[in-house]
Amino acid sequence: MIIRSKAPLRLGLAGGGTDVSPYSDTYGGLVLNATINLYAYCTIEETNDDKIEIIAADLNKREVFPKSKSLPINGTNDLHKGVYNRIVKDYNLDAMSFRIITYSDAPAGSGLGSSSTMVVCILKAFIEWKKLPMGDYELARLAYEIERLDLNLSGGKQDQYAAAFGGFNFMEFLKNDMVIVNPLKMKRWIVDELESSMLLYYTGASRSSAKIINEQKNNTQKGNTTTIESLHKIKQSAIDMKRCLLVGDINGFASILRDAWEDKKQLASSISNPMIEQVLSLAYSSGAIAGKVSGAGGGGFITLVVDPKNKYQLSSALKQLPGDIIPFQFNDEGTHGWTIY
Which among 9, 118, 263, 279 could bridge 112 via Cys, Cβ 3.0 to 4.6 Å? Predict the structure, then answer.
């Protein structure tokens, strides 16, 4: 028997950073994001050799262990092992023999939530395999706990819920890790206009989001006025952007995206850098009307907004740089799994 799953990566559009504790616990966070047609993939093959084989194909990492109810967390393939350990523990399952193979359309550190999406994807494969009773909220919450609590990896909460639910979502992050996902019913022409007006540029430079997020968390805990006021503005940008998207105000959307990027740069010193500023400078001089780094910042993907009639001009200019333009479309489905007998 073979089990497969896939989960969509996301673009953070507004409010990113307000889903990170302690800000979300104290003030409440709001995030607007949307999933796109780039994915994390997982395959589980049942075996009879009393072994567990883990292969992260895109990272070229492979480990083999004797069949066990708990795998060691050692810095290699920890996302896979964290999911397995938690599933076996929570559902009191026997040790299993299997081979698991994963890969992602986007590299780790890209700013598209690739690590959290991979956790959701792996978790969905185990849910499909063992027929576990788990809805989207429970799946996302468990993925968050595995990554943030069990594995102690820094980050926010939006990525797990985006991967689980899919589509355009306005998310509320409240105290005690309470999350409310509000799907946005987007008109088709608005989605088409957004896709025509947006360009996704990969800088080629991955980054550790943990360092950036930890600096933001420390600034919040210390009551840093600049950081907290910037987060308040970023949270308001999610509310304002939701209104623009629902009525198809792309210029308003672009203006909010541009201003929110300036606010985000106040959260931590390494959110922007000369390489990012060079890309944005060239983009603005070549027709872009807004731009921001996706995710925590520091590298990865840059989201750009441009009048569709200037999109080819912008694309041509960016080809002067060493990065890549990644075609994408918005996706309206969350993670799903299936079985091949």
Answer: 9
